[in-house]
């Protein structure tokens, strides 16, 4: 049985990672800034550099800061400007999510961002995974015209959330695309597919590279505690290639 086109989206935060994802066989990118803290909105110059180095479609994360998804008015105004700006720059899609304090989707704000996105595709990101009622949020995403929901099934990995993902897939049918993310890679993707039937997957394929710095002054941290300034996270071409190959096998069988 041919299962149709399987989608592999690579989550990247640098031109080097974008190139690796393309060479490895990814179908598209989610572009973020600073994946080491879970990803925030990239700046314009990162976007332009990725476009110069890579021909894949680019979905841009709209997230003004690290942390929860309940935004102040000033933060939301930033998000409005970011959506409009990346639309002008030619992004293929935006990746958004806003919650209310009670754990429900902030429908008013999501609708506003969708209006600003216009004819761009929209992904609802993993704010979905910390909402109170995923079934209700899924119906609301359909109502808003969102094309894709990125989710781990409300667990810390898509494999652990496979039962929830399978149930959500039954609920979604062909109305919206569910994309499994968190812990996706060559070691897990076949089992996730077998348990859920999802046809879209999201991974960063991170590999830690050693800094090129030869002189290293220790004990002067510049960022989050416990994170070395002498390590660089980048997408690994081979991890993408292996995962893409497995998805191709699944799609052709």
As laid out across the biggest beta sheet, the strand order is 1-2-3-4-5-6-7-8
Oligomer: single chain
Number of helices: 8
Instruction: Provide mean pLDDT, rounded.
Output: 94
% residues in beta strands: 15-25%
The largest β sheet comes out as: 8 strands, parallel, barrel
CATH class: Alpha Beta
State the end-to-end CA separation. Answer: 5 Å
What's the gyration radius in Å? 18 Å
What is the chain-wise order of helices and strands? EHEHEHEHEHEHEHEEEH
Name of the CATH superfamily: Copper homeostasis (CutC) domain
Class by SSE composition: alpha/beta
Helix content: 25-40%
Second CATH tier, the architecture: Alpha-Beta Barrel
* Large-scale geometry: globular
How many strands appear in the DSSP assignment? 10
| CATH topology type | TIM Barrel
List keywords for this structure.
253 residues, alpha/beta, TIM Barrel, eight-stranded parallel beta barrel, two-stranded antiparallel sheet, 8 helices, 37% helix, globular
Description:
It holds the Pfam family CutC. It comes from Hominiventricola filiformis. It is found in: Cytoplasm. This is PF03932 family protein CutC. Helix content is 37%, strand content 18%. With 253 residues, it is α/β, with parallel strands linked by helices. The chain has a single domain, classed as TIM Barrel, CATH 3.20.20. The strands form 2 sheets. Strands 1-2-3-4-5-6-7-8 form an 8-stranded parallel β-barrel, surrounded by 5 helices. The protein has a two-stranded antiparallel ribbon with strand order 9-10. The protein is globular, with a radius of gyration of 18 Å. The mean pLDDT is 94.
